[in-house]
Amino acid sequence: MVKNVLNKLTVNLYDLDVRKQLFEHLIVLLKRQDGLCLRPIVALCIGSDRYTGDALGPLVGTYLEENTECNVYGTLEHPVHAGNFVETLNSITHRYHHPLIIAIDACLGKSHEVGNIEIWQGGLAAGIAVGNRLPTIGDISVIGVVNAQSQIGYLDLQSTSLGKVMKLSKVIGEAITEALNTVVVEKMSICTQSVAK
């Protein structure tokens, strides 16, 4: 699922300061991105509402669409899934010059990893749990481990607790929103100072 992972943070949904840890790590990763001031930020929230476990991305996307000025692809109303993934990537590449992509997806893991949220610098390869090989995407990646994996991935996604997915999506959505809103204010300040010089 993961490629070129740098600066990875793993926290659990039930850690006391989970949102704060995610927010702080996201800020660090965002500030490390080259040309942050000039690059449009795109949240690519991967998944579908057809399986409970796969709805994490679209739930986060819907939250971000309602609470940020970020360019969001993948919501409950307009999900990004295996069927339209490549088309969506092409659309993003044609619409934005050198976008900074934050990729968000659900993940299956070991039983003791359920409820973990992982964030790192680098891309993720979506769809592996259900046998799809989609292109690796993302400058920053965020995954939520929604269920334990058996041999049949889509059944694990079908039998995932909606309550857990909702909690994961809320924590991830809030942390990303707070980080993006903070960075957007800083970007405006940096860009204004650059223009003034």
Overview of the molecule:
- This protein is of the alpha/beta class and 197 residues long.
- It has a single domain, classed as Rossmann fold, CATH 3.40.50.
- Helix content is 40%, strand content 22%.
- It has 5 helices and 8 strands; from the N terminus they run E-H-E-H-E-H-E-E-E-E-E-H-H.
- It has helices at 18-31, 56-67, 85-95, 153-158, 162-196, and strands at 6-12, 41-45, 71-73, 100-109, 116-121, 124-125, 136-137, 140-148.
- The strands form 2 sheets. Strands 1-5-8-4-2-3 form a 6-stranded mixed beta sheet.
- Helix 1 runs parallel beside helix 5 and helix 2 packs across helix 5.
- The longest helix is centred in the last third of the chain and has 35 residues, at 162-196.
- The radius of gyration is 16 Å and the shape is globular.
- The protein starts with 5 loop residues before the first strand and ends with a helix.
- The mean pLDDT is 86.
